[in-house]
Amino acid sequence: MEILETIYQEVIGFLGISQAWEILKTGNYAALKTYEGFTAFIFPIIPFLVLLELTLGLIYKKPHSKVYKVNFLIYIFNRVVGRFIAIAMVTWIIGFFQPLAPFQTSFTWYWFIYGYIVWEFGHFLYHYWGHKVRLFWCLHSTHHAPEEMNLSVTYAHFFLEAPYADTIRTTVCILAGVEPTMLFVIMFIDGTYGAFIHVGENLMKNARLGFLEKFMLTPSHHRVHHARNPLYMDTNFCNLLNIWDRVFKTYQEEQEDVKIEYGITREMNSGNFMDVYFGEIVSLAKDVWHAPGIKNKLLYLVMPPGWHHEGDHKTAKIVRANYFNSQKVKIKA
């Protein structure tokens, strides 16, 4: 019976309906005026969309079953291993860095806009380094391994990625004076929208959002980010506002004549949990082991994925540059 109760609690936890169900049972609708009560009815949206997306895939015979299977296993593994680490890191960072901030904001609409722009900058930094530093890529690559885009990809993360991400984002925000309560609201919005942009073609065939693409990152933009095509590699690092991608020239729109190929460039079995979760760590360990000298071993940790100690580099920057050069040659020909 304890096993059944545990399974039941995990299902309720995944769906995120415990708080909403309590409000419905007690009839305490006044709770909807509070932040906790409001978010209680927002949290379940993404899990239910995941189930709807999977159902539609089965109906239209378009599910990529191994993607859902592996992402589900990752979700379970992370629930067991890394449940409270990120929360503890955020709490510690707020307490440590808040006294060091040169000024403090308040929870007003104009400071909220400021706070979100600062948060987006922190997100850009964490995400950019997750692609440009090999050690951090080991934490982030699990999220890029699926060879199809759907909402279950939201749950595909290495358990240490959330602490790493929140360390960067929270530190940037707290040092910039973002008020902690406002920061948690921003985190909630960011997490909800960050899940939505992984929506698959079963729910949203055309993932563009019209004029909103001028300043917002859309599901189409994020599909580009998850692509391994040379044109799309290492672009669109923002989450909701694409301001920093435009500033740092990492912005890229989806092209109709370049079909997105999802996944990572390393040859792997995307249906194998161990390869998806630990494959990049194993690959890095092998490179470090075989590298000559301490300097090269350390460089493998901090240089971008694709860097090689013999100079035969296949980093995203070089692959992308070669692609653009080849396009110029075709045009001239």
From TrEMBL:
Single Gene Ontology BP annotation: membrane lipid metabolic process
Which top-level group of life is the source organism from?
Bacteria
Keyword line: Lipid metabolism, Membrane, Oxidoreductase, Transmembrane, Transmembrane helix
Specify whether Chloroplast is a keyword of the entry. no
Name a single GO cellular component. Answer: endomembrane system
GO molecular-function terms, A-Z: glyceryl-ether monooxygenase activity; iron ion binding
Q: Which Pfam families match?
A: FA_hydroxylase
- What compartments host this protein? Endomembrane system
Q: What is this protein called?
A: Sterol desaturase/sphingolipid hydroxylase, fatty acid hydroxylase superfamily
Organism encoding this protein: Kriegella aquimaris
